[in-house]
Specification:
The structure is a single chain. This protein has 207 residues and is of the alpha/beta class. 38% of the residues lie in helices and 14% in strands. The protein has helices at residues 20-32, 40-50, 55-61, 69-77, 91-95, 109-119, 138-149, 166-172, 201-204, and strands spanning 4-7, 100-106, 127-131, 156-160, 176-180, 193-195. A 6-stranded parallel β-sheet has the order 3-2-1-4-5-6, sandwiched between helices. The longest helix is centred in the N-terminal third of the chain and has 13 residues, at 20-32. The termini are close together.
Amino acid sequence: MKRIFFIDLDNTIYFTKQNEEQLMGELYRFLKKLDLGISEKDFQLAKQEMLRTPFLKVAKKYRFNEDVMPEVISYLQNRSVTHLLKPSDDYHYIKSLTGRKFIVTAGFPKQQLSKVTMLGIADDFEEVHVVDVSKSNKKEKFEMLIDQHQLNKDDILIIGDDAESEIKFGLELGLSTFLLDPENLHPNAESTFRGNDLSNLHIAAEQ
């Protein structure tokens, strides 16, 4: 039975698309005022990717104007989400897991921590960890948590939607993983368990 859970935040505990205006509206308007050096078509594509992918990765992919990036990063580092957010309809599957639960999310700390507050879920987790992807990755954070808390790898299940981040790194560390893929974006990705929702999460956790 799994007793320890490393859980992603964005598009796992809640879905960005369902909370798009609360999360992204002000950011979109801020970016629109800047000279990003990209076409309107690419801006619209980038906006959609921002719903699923860390901002710095999107900016690199679409080659945002480097001259404005310091201003953008400063904005994001100091940004908080101030509107209430709605957890996913499947969040009760996560909440009802028995054991120690840690949020491990990537992004800007102030922003990510404010999301946890606006979701009203802070008390459901032992700790919340935010990974700055410009300096580290989730694999290093998983290793840190295992060492710090002297965790048994056999007791751990990683839950998330990113096949190239928490799922990939979890498998590399010999941990069990549950890939949440409601839109079947990663049909060929390796994972111990997978689902288009979380209804089988307790089976994966052997609870």
